Structure formats: C-alpha cells, structure tokens
C-alpha cells in the first residue's frame, strides 16, 4: 500500500500558534511561533510517516455554506489574532518551497476539502490515507482505509486513530460522530444540539439505535423525560447533524502524480529557513544529509582543482 498524507493546514497552524510562545521571533522582530510549530510538524510527518503522496488543505478567509445555513455558526469566536494571520503567508511559503500542493475552496472548510480528497483517494485500491489534524470532527472520515494522525504536546509525538481507537477514545464508532454531534451540539462551533442531552446519553442512544434518525423513529421506546427533550430539540438536532457533516463532493480534484513527494530546491528552502531563523530545522529537511555530502564533495573537488593549479 502507498500512503497519501493530507494535512489540515489551519488546524495544525492554530495548534502550533497556541503551543509555542509569541516570544519566538526573528532578530528583526517577526513573530514566527506558528510557522515554526507547523514546519516542525511537517518535517516530522515526512520523517515518521514517509508518505508517497502529500498535500495540505487550508481554510479561506470567507464565510462557508455553514455560515449561510446557520447564522450563529462560529459566531462567538473572536477574530484571529493579527499575530496569527500574519504568519499564514509564511506557512504557504514553506509548503510551496517543499513542492507540496495546496488545496482550498471558497465556501468550504479545509475539512470538506480533505473529505473530498480522501474519498477520491479511497477509490484507488493501493492507497491508504492518513489525515494530520488536531480537529476531532474529522474522525468521522476514519474507516479501514483512512486514519487520523494527531500531533501531541510539543509536536514531537502523535497518536494514530483507526476505527477501533476512535471508538475507544469517543465511545462511538466513526460513522456515528455526526449523529452524536447532532445530539450534543458543538460549543466550539456554536451549534446547539438537543438541550439537556450530554455525551454519555448521546452515546448510549446511538449505541442502541445506531443513527439519529432511528432514535427519533423509536422515540416512544425512550423514557418520557428524555423523549420530551428530544422532541423539543429535534429541529436543532437535525440542523447540528447537517452542520457537523463533512462534505465529500467539493469541486477539487486529486491528482496523485502532482502530490507525489519529490525533491525540491534545497538552496531555496535553506534561504527561507535562514530568513526565519529556523537553523535547527535545516538538518531535519528530507534528503539534507545527502545534500550536505554533495556540498562537501563539491568543496573537496574544488580544493583539489586549486591545488593542481
């Protein structure tokens, strides 16, 4: 099996921004904490997972269809810090310098783009998909061919979630996550769910009735107090389920050949890292050892030529 790694750019960038201090700056005063964290993660992924194919998906600074569907979607979230926004351009520079393709789609989140790319890749018999993210919502995509790789503290370690690990972690299988979100809602995205239904109750209902639709079809079998809550919150439950569902038919097209991990301009990325003052990361670049050996040989050959002259 060959592997395709899909990185949720904004999710990782946000995690990096909060994981590393704002005091991480260049001598010129440019804040680079999120860029450093993201770059460290990217290099760790290349080293640890050794993917055959790699791509990064980013959110765009525009409303998505979810904002139009529900006016309160993410309404309580404050605007991103300027210090965070200013680093996005730099992350794009790093990704492009490593010859990694970037996917975006206006009106959709990076999750939807990744969902679409993973669906397209799943149609190819010899490819497994690993999604790198800190967002638990994307675990709904996990199946026999799709896993989620979640960086842990410091970005030096990670956990890999397959179907069984997701169930152990969340108490429900991946295919029940959108129904679970329908019942409990999501405070981080500000959609409601059913008032008075918590995670434990939601998991119990779904493990018994399998789907949100089946819960409502069997409403008469549920204890009266809980049934009343479900009836009152049905509209919110169906809306929350819809908002939680990752779209998998966004108009982006996966070309594995373009995503193939290949060589890059070593001088270009080294100059960029020196500008960002990421000297410790230069040695972690893919193929850097061979590049250093090549430079050393060129230096030795030049010295020999000078001695002959």
Describe the structure in your own words.
- The chain has 309 residues and is of the alpha/beta class.
- It is 50% helix and 10% strand.
- It has 15 helices and six strands.
- The protein has a six-stranded mixed beta sheet.
What's this, in brief?
The protein contains 15 helices and 6 strands. With 309 residues, it is of the alpha/beta class. The chain has 2 domains: 2-163 and 247-282, Rossmann fold, CATH 3.40.50; 174-244, 5' to 3' exonuclease, C-terminal subdomain (DNA polymerase, domain 1).
CATH structural architecture of the largest domain: 3-Layer(aba) Sandwich
The H-and-E topology, N to C, reads as EHHEHHEHEEEHHHHHHHHHH
Give the mean pLDDT: 92
Q: Enumerate how many helices there are, as a single number.
A: 15
Q: What coarse outline follows from CA principal-axis ratios?
A: elongated
The CATH class of the largest domain turns out to be Alpha Beta
Structural class: alpha/beta
CATH superfamily descriptor of the largest domain: 5'-nuclease
Give the percentage of residues in beta strands: 5-15%
Strand numbers in spatial order across the main sheet: 3-2-1-4-5-6
Low-confidence spans: none
Total domain count: 2
Name the descriptors.
309 residues, alpha/beta, Rossmann fold, DNA polymerase, domain 1, six-stranded mixed beta sheet
Question: What is the strand and helix layout of this fold?
Answer:
Layout: E1 2-8, H1 9-19, H2 33-48, E2 53-57, H3 65-69, H4 82-97, E3 102-103, H5 110-122, E4 127-132, E5 146-151, E6 158-161, H6 163-170, H7 177-184, H8 199-209, H9 212-217, H10 224-232, H11 234-244, H12 256-259, H13 266-276, H14 279-282, H15 288-308
Parallel strand pairs: 1-2, 1-4, 2-3, 4-5
Antiparallel strand pairs: 5-6
């Amino acid at each position: 099996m060959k592997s395709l790694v899909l990185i949720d750019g904004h999710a990782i960038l946000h995690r990096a921004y909060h994981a590393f201090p704002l005091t991480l700056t260049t001598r010129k005063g440019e804040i680079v904490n999120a860029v450093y964290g993201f770059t460290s993660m990217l290099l760790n992924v290349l080293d640890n997972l050794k993917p055959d194919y790699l791509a990064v998906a980013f959110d765009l600074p525009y409303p998505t269809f979810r904002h139009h569907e529900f006016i309160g979607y993410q309404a309580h979230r404050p605007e991103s810090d300027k210090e965070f926004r200013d680093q996005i351009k730099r992350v794009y520079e790093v990704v492009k310098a490593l010859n990694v393709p970037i996917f975006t789609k206006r009106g959709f989140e990076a999750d939807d783009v990744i969902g679409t790319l993973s669906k397209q890749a799943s149609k190819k018999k010899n490819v497994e998909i690993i999604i790198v993210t800190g967002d638990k919502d994307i675990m709904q995509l996990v199946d026999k061919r799709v896993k989620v790789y979640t960086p842990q503290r410091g970005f030096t370690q990670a956990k890999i979630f397959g179907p069984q690990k997701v169930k152990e972690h969340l108490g429900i299988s991946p295919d029940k996550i959108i129904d679970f979100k329908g019942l409990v809602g999501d405070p981080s995205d500000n959609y409601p769910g059913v008032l008075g239904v918590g995670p434990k109750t939601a998991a119990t209902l779904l493990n018994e009735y399998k789907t949100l639709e089946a819960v409502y079809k069997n409403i008469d079998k549920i204890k009266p107090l809980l049934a009343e809550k479900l009836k009152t919150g049905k509209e919110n439950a169906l809306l929350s389920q819809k908002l939680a569902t990752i779209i998998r038919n966004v108009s982006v097209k996966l070309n594995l050949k373009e995503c193939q991990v290949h060589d890059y301009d070593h001088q270009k990325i080294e100059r960029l890292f020196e500008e960002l003052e990421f000297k410790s990361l230069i040695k972690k670049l893919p193929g850097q050892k061979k590049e250093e050996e090549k430079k050393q040989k060129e230096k030795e050959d030049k010295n020999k030529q000078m001695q002959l002259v």
